[in-house]
Amino acid sequence: MQVTRRQFFKYCAAGLGTSSVAALGFSPVDALAEVRAFKLIGSSEARNTCPYCSVSCGLIMHSMGDKAKNAELSIFHIEGDPDHPVNRGTLCPKGAALVDFIHSPNRLKYPEYRAPGSSEWKRITWDEAFAKVARLVKDDRDKNFIAKNAAGATVNRWLTTGFLAASASSNETGWITHKVVRSTGILAFDNQARV
Ligand code: SF4
Asked: Ligand 1 centroid to 90 CA: how many Å?
């Protein structure tokens, strides 16, 4: 598209930033020929659930990467899922900023352990973490479980350990988590949405 200098400035008056474009040294023809590509072209989509609160809004996460065996997909855009019955495509400011949470250098991605008296956190495997948690939980329950109160009534309670569940779980996961935790006698049971 060829544009005369007069036409170019007329277009600028309708919305283009004349001074900044000219200051950058673009000619009128070059400036109008540039078309900005839609940023989601070529991205991969995956559905997920916002992890922040118990509303559990549905998300669509867009990643770049060609899915080759050793290529790592990198999420660069997140938006509300318009087909999700909870949020119908909307997100609150926390959910809309999730991409920064994903790429935060402070995000915890694997289990770490700090030994008693140590100031250092050490990375451990998931198997080591599960084994350690299971051992501590079992030992504490064996030591502190209360089957009957002072009056002899059955109470089956365990007050020295609490459980914090995820708020973004499905109904089924929540039901199973509730059954397992309550069956141990734990009373201090909540989810991370209220923390
Ligand atoms: S987007 Fe906002 S309202 Fe929805 S689950 Fe996340 S934090 Fe909660």
From this structure: 9
β-pairing, 74-80 with 112-113?
unpaired
Could you give the CA distance from residue 2 to residue 107 in angstroms, rounded to a whole number?
51
Residue 182: count of CB within 10 angstroms of its CB: 13
Rounded Cα gap, residues 168 and 192, in angstroms: 9
pTM for the whole structure: 0.63
> What separation in Å is there between the alpha carbon of 107 and the centre of ligand 1?
18
The whole-angstrom separation of Cα 112 and Cα 114 is: 7
What are 156-166's pLDDT values in tens digits? 999 999 999 88
Cα torsion 37, 43, 46, 49: sign: negative
